[in-house]
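new request in #modeling-help
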Amino acid sequence: MRTAFVLVALAVALVASVLAGILVGAVPIAPGDVWNALWGNGDAANATIVRDLRLPRVLGAAIVGGALAVAGALLQGLLRNPLADPYVTGTSAGGSLCAVAAIALGASSEPALLPVAAFFGALASAAIVWRLSSLGGRTSVLTVLLAGVILSSFAAAIVTLLLVASDRIVLRLRAVLGWLLGGVAILDGTELAVAAAIVIAATAAAIALARRLDAFALGEETAATLGVDLERSTAAILAVTALLTGAAVALAGVIGFVGLVVPHAIRPVLGAAHARLVPASFLLGAVTLVLADIGARTVLSPAELPVGVVTGLVGGPFFLGLLLRQRRRMLV
Amino acid sequence: MTALAARAVVAGYRDREVLHDCDVCVGAGEVVCLVGPNGAGKSTLLRALAGLLVPRSGDVRLDGRDLRSLARREIARRIAVVPQVFETLFPFTVREVVALGRTARLSLFGRPSAVDRAAVDRALDELALLALADRTITEISGGERQRAVLAMALAQEGDVLLLDEPTAHLDPAHQLATLALVRRLARTRGLAVVAVLHDLNLAASAATRIVVIEHGRVVVDAPPLDALTPEVVGRVFGAGLEVERRGGRPVVVPGALP
């Protein structure tokens, strides 16, 4: 009952925030005109702004936010670590490295290629973090964070190198930088559709993995004695995480902390069971990033911030608070 | 008749061999307690019996079938393990943790059936956890958590139960209650039980058979009175311990301290 109520409430909030996202923008357009523009009626300029600029941006934010939040829930479950998400574990950084490399090699003309490249980068870094964190049997919160820092800095160094060295990128450095910093500003319809398909399929797969993720929370060995095939399940969880992160990175670059914060907001309300945590995280993640993007567009209006700046500003202190709380519980 | 048997098991970690040529077996209705000094290899032997540690040589067989030939899921339907350390930072309810015992009996998208729910309720009831069922595992005491994990293993409804220090975090009353429950399950449901215990007296009162392990080898495998003789206790656990007989059981007490 409670679960159904919360999920419906979150779905309503998502619809409301998407509508709000379409209504708000640098150019003031009356709600009635926005409605007409949405269906291709009325003023042509309004139609372009609403349908080609605002709608893809808002939908993109929803997809990216949902994907990152589910990826965060998966990483926290797999690593048994409440301080994990695609950003702090370096998974997003690995994805962005491969995406930038793909652009440098001339792949940007093919919309499906970026998510694929980002998938492999995210998969490699998530696998490295998982491997490091499971050394010695017990996962340490700090090991995961350190591995994330190392991977992120390493990836950032190579990305910088590519940005400077690649002729293809130098020509449109500003656009590539804007994307890398976590922006959903200019989204192409095909890119959006590809990413949405990946994210929806991966979220369904994450729900299918829910029971195994629950078992993982009790420790790998206990999960095994409960009948979980560790190797296959771990591979599946890592792959789904990488799909979600890859799709998010391909659309919007590196956006921090959404994946970290959202599952934490859900657990006190719906509990830790992943069958509820995953769908609720998807919805709340989508709402969060749509709202953050509205903030990014309005705070310095008419100038726009990359949405990653907003999530970083809000998520950074939150992360610090969590770390302090863990520290106090002597679990770091 | 259920039987789990380790034969000539050699096992260890990386470059360290912990078990050398261990033989141990348990049948339906038996409670076998593994005792021995710290580092003797009790927990390692239990992990080998659970199929979590693959022997370098020798084998572990469940009703004659090598555990290596069984999938984790098949093993989990037969053998339940109560781990020694158990911690999670996530607020699962006690009922959710116990319900995880049904994992091996559910299909990928399958929802728990009435049978699954009944098994969970019964396990909660048996460990007096019904009142705590909706509390989260992070807010109950260590002893209650230990009972929850035991309930999870019972909900698994296997016919072999392996316990690693099941009484470590319990007060004396709950230690006895837990071991009494384990004995009763062995007797009434025909469970085959192997428990690692530190406390020799608890082992002597719970076990139908005691296996004493020292330096990775089985030194004695016998009923309590024949296993915990003054000679064995003095040699394996060191001087300073005295063994008395009380009510047909050996009782180990510390001798006078200098």
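bot summary: The longest strand of chain B covers residues 16-27.
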